[in-house]
Design brief:
Strand order of the largest sheet: 1-9-8-7-6-4-5-3-2
CATH superfamily: Alpha/Beta hydrolase fold, catalytic domain
Shape: globular
Number of helices: 9
CATH class: Alpha Beta
Mean pLDDT: 94
Number of domains: 1
Helix content: 25-40%
Distance between the termini: 19 Å
Radius of gyration: 18 Å
Low-confidence stretches: none
Number of strands: 9
Length: 292
């Protein structure tokens, strides 16, 4: 199958309530040495789609995907160890550890059939590791604004140690997000609330978590293994994502993963699921339908 590279024009973005009024039940499950929180929504006898969030994020950021796709599919999302309301411990961690957490979660929920795995940012790294290690469990892959390697300099780790996760989040929001003043006037309130919500949710994350997981990102490199990912793969990037370096990593993933398609979402930065929800849902929805 030939790889397809094309940029899509966005549909009109409809601002949703921000922060969202989340109606899902937060459930708890023991995975390894950690109690993890998760959502499990939608018909249990249908295709399962799992949503893996990024570094310092949580499952709330997937709300407008889970609420949409749980109408027809089983939608699973969990907070990684040390994230959101999942249990936190000051221990070393790796991307492989997080992929094995995910496997154990699926096993404990008796989700043994092949599923579609959608990972954003660090979640996309976990998705790549999972697809490489457990190809028998993956029907298709969605990689959103992620990378097959992410060099982390010691200076950045020192910044987290000195500033803490919350102050780092505020700094990165200013450096890497599309300024609200550059958004359409009718959407500026939405994007302002989105920015504040995403930063404030990091207020209580411990510094050790930021450091340990940043080290895990720095150790991540599967560039030479990408050709081993054989499942159909949709790669999605925000056109203006400078945090993950869209210019470098979108093409690298597309070139190295044999059966992959690349979609670029106009007027989105590092977070298309919330920055351009309608277009993002449309793109992944069309992809998912092929593998029902």
């Amino acid at each position: 199958m030939n790889k397809i590279k094309e940029a899509k024009l966005i549909s009109k973005m409809q601002p949703r309530k921000m922060p969202p009024d989340i109606e899902f039940e937060y459930k708890n499950i023991k995975v390894g040495n950690y109690n993890l929180t998760y959502w499990d929504e939608g018909p249990k006898d249908s295709l399962t789609i799992s949503f893996l969030h990024g570094y310092t994020g949580d499952i709330d950021g997937w709300y407008y995907q889970v609420s949409e796709f749980s109408k027809n599919y089983r939608c699973l999302a969990h907070n990684h160890r040390c994230h959101g309301s999942s249990e936190s411990k000051n221990e070393p961690v790796s991307i492989k550890d997080l992929a094995e957490d995910f496997l154990e979660l699926l096993d404990k929920l008796n989700i043994l059939e092949k599923i579609i795995v959608n990972g954003h940012s660090m979640g996309g790294m976990i998705a790549q590791r999972f697809a490489l290690d457990h190809p028998d469990r993956v029907k298709a892959l969605i990689l959103t604004d992620t990378a097959p390697k992410l060099p982390i300099e010691d200076e950045m780790i020192d910044q987290v140690k000195n500033m803490g996760v919350y102050e780092l989040a505020k700094m990165m929001e200013k450096m890497f997000s599309i300024p609200v003043r550059k958004r359409p006037p009718e959407l500026r309130e939405y994007y302002k609330n989105l920015s504040e919500w995403e930063v404030e949710k990091k207020k209580d994350l411990p510094t050790y978590m930021g450091v340990n997981f940043l080290k895990a990102l720095g150790d991540w490199d599967v560039v030479e293994q990408l050709h081993e990912i054989k499942v159909p793969t949709l790669i999605v990037f925000g056109e203006k994502d400078t945090l993950t370096d869209k210019k470098a990593y979108s093409n690298l993933l597309n070139e190295k993963i044999p059966n992959s398609i690349l979609e670029i979402i106009k007027d989105a930065g590092h977070g298309p699921p919330l920055e351009q929800t309608d277009e993002y849902n449309r793109i992944i929805g069309e992809f998912i339908k092929k593998y029902e």
